[in-house]
Amino acid sequence: MKVGKTNNDHMYPSLHRLLLAKGFPATWFLSEDIRCHVTLQDSILATSVLSIINSNVSMKQVHSLRHDLEEKNALLSTVQKQLSKHQPNGTTGNMTNESTTGRVIEHLQAEIDSLKKELAESKTLIHVAKVARERAERQVSEHLASHQTLRLEIDSLKRMFERKERQSKELEESTKDIEKRNSDMKFERDNAYTRLRQSELKVSDLERKLQEALALKEKSEIEYSLLSKEMQSFKTRYANDVEIVKKEFKILRKEMSSTSRSLEDVVLMTSVKVEEITSERTEEIGNLESIADKLKENQEKHAQKLLKEIEAMKKDVEHSSQKTSEHIMNELEYSSLLFIRIC
Known about the structure:
Blueprint: H1 7-11, H2 13-22, H3 32-55, H4 59-85, H5 94-255, H6 261-342
Helix pairs in contact: 2-4, 3-4, 3-5, 5-6
């Protein structure tokens, strides 16, 4: 449906084209009443838009409303300028102007109601967005606090991790030291075991020699006792022989006291012979006694030497065993302390 042109179209050609471009009816005519009404509504909408802008929420919808209001304000300012330039001088067409003014007011009122509705919806959306923003701010603050707490926990965990790394390095070094000590202990243990075996062999050899020496000592004692008995028997026989010779000599002396010089020579020879026999017997006794003394002295020296060697070997074995035990105990104590420290 085409709308015919009015008198106002010829009076305000540029305004008519602008209104048509903005979607207003072609029969819309502006008057002083319209200007006053538009100025009042413009101030109301401007105040609403400022309140919307100040909320800083739902920026997209506020921007759309603000754009519409700017267009309406530009249109109204253009209309006002056209009205101020082309004010009608007569009263021609008052009836048409009143009807057109009523339609324009109704259209503006509808536009204002629509804008109010949109404004109310925008306020509701702004309130909802504000509540959402507050909730988001609380969540952000909570997240910041949680982030700070997590950062502190991360720093604490980093320090703990660094401490654990240091402890791990220390434990690795301690483990290497323990392994080295264990290898040294094994080497010393093997050496001690070797020395112990050698000492045991020496002890067994000394025990064997001691048994041989004891057997030799018993044999020597038996021989010495036999020699002593034989010496005693020899002394007894010698004493008996001397007594017999003396008795025979006395008898012969008595029997031959009246004989001649030759008999005296015989007696002298007999005496010399007796003395020789006696000296020979005495030398034999001395030799036997010296042999017995030497045998006894050699037995005692050999026994003392064996006893000294046995005592020295016992001391060496005891010292080696004690040293090995002390070293093993020290290493065990060190290992136990280090194990307790690791745990």
